């Protein structure tokens, strides 16, 4: 399993939110490019880069995204407000290794089928989950669909993977939702990326044992609860 630092952009800064609430910002660092370079220097090979303002329709940090994508020797997956094939193409041509699609992917199956055929193996579907129900529009709207049902709708698509974020644990460092992730791995036919609640190395090892392909780490890294270099060295693939 690979560990991937989260780099969430809001108002031109790198932030970490608590519990999926935009009113609960715990970390704010004013030079996101420097943050990306710091994780690279710690030994991480990948980054999870999300424009939260674009995801919620509050603005854009596209200039910062473009700058980070220029960093060499990093595999970067990019998301936030991706709603069209043209946006996906621009991200990939700009240096993204994979593109994360969330709200439209969940709500528009024909569109998802079309873009995965255009960009096979390059798209990660983000299924943000609160108590096993899918939430969209930057965690602000709860959908009637359960996450395992949403995964069933994805069968047969040439995805790079599915990213399941336990929003109810995001930023709280109360432990990953292991039972949720175990069920997702059992239901999915493609790699599963897990996020939300990771508090330490034991959580990462538990996720690896359950078949998770990659874990996105935020608060535990930014608060120093885990040793970044040690995590990068142990969870490298």
Keywords:
11 helices; 12 strands; alpha/beta; 237 residues; 8-stranded parallel barrel
Question: Can you tell me about this structure?
Answer:
The protein has 237 residues and is an alpha/beta fold. It contains 11 helices and 12 strands. The protein has an 8-stranded parallel barrel with strand order 1-4-5-6-7-10-11-12, surrounded by 6 helices. Helix 9 links the parallel strand 11 (192-195) and strand 12 (214-217). The longest helix is centred in the first third of the chain and has 10 residues, at 32-41. It is globular, with a radius of gyration of 16 Å. The relative contact order is 0.16. The mean pLDDT is 91.
**How many runs of DSSP E, i.e. beta strands?**
12
Q: SSE order, as H and E?
A: EEEHEHHEHEHHEEEHEHEHEHH
Global Rg:
16 Å
Global structural class? alpha/beta
Mean pLDDT, rounded to whole units?
91
Spatial separation of the terminal alpha carbons: 5 Å
Biggest pleated-sheet summary: 8 strands, parallel, barrel
Instruction: Determine the number of helices (DSSP H or I, runs of at least 4 residues).
Output: 11
Strand content: 25-35%
Side by side, the strands of the main sheet go: 1-4-5-6-7-10-11-12
Q: Describe the global form.
A: globular
- Poorly predicted runs of 5 or more residues: none
- Estimate the helix proportion, in percent: 25-40%
């Amino acid at each position: 399993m690979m560990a991937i630092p989260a780099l969430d952009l809001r108002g031109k800064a790198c932030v970490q939110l608590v519990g999926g609430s935009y009113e609960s910002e715990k970390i704010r660092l004013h030079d996101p490019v420097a943050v990306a370079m710091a994780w690279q220097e710690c030994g991480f090979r990948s980054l999870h880069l999300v424009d939260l303002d674009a995801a919620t329709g509050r603005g854009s940090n596209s200039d910062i995204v473009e700058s980070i994508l220029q960093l060499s020797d990093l595999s970067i997956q990019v998301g936030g407000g991706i709603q069209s094939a043209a946006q996906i193409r621009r991200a990939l041509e700009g240096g993204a290794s994979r593109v994360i699609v969330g709200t439209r992917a969940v709500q528009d199956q024909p569109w998802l089928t079309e873009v995965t055929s255009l960009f096979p193996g390059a798209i990660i579907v983000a299924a943000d989950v609160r108590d096993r129900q899918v939430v969209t529009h930057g965690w602000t709207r709860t959908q009637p669909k359960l996450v395992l049902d949403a995964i069933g709708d994805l069968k047969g698509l040439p995805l790079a993977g599915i990213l399941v974020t336990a929003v109810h644990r995001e930023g709280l460092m109360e432990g990953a939702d292991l039972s949720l992730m175990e069920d997702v791995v059992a239901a999915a036919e493609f790699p599963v990326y897990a996020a939300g609640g990771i508090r330490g190395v034991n959580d990462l090892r538990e996720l690896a044992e359950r078949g998770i392909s990659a874990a996105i780490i935020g608060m535990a890294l930014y608060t120093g609860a885990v040793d970044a270099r040690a995590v990068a060295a142990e969870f490298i693939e």
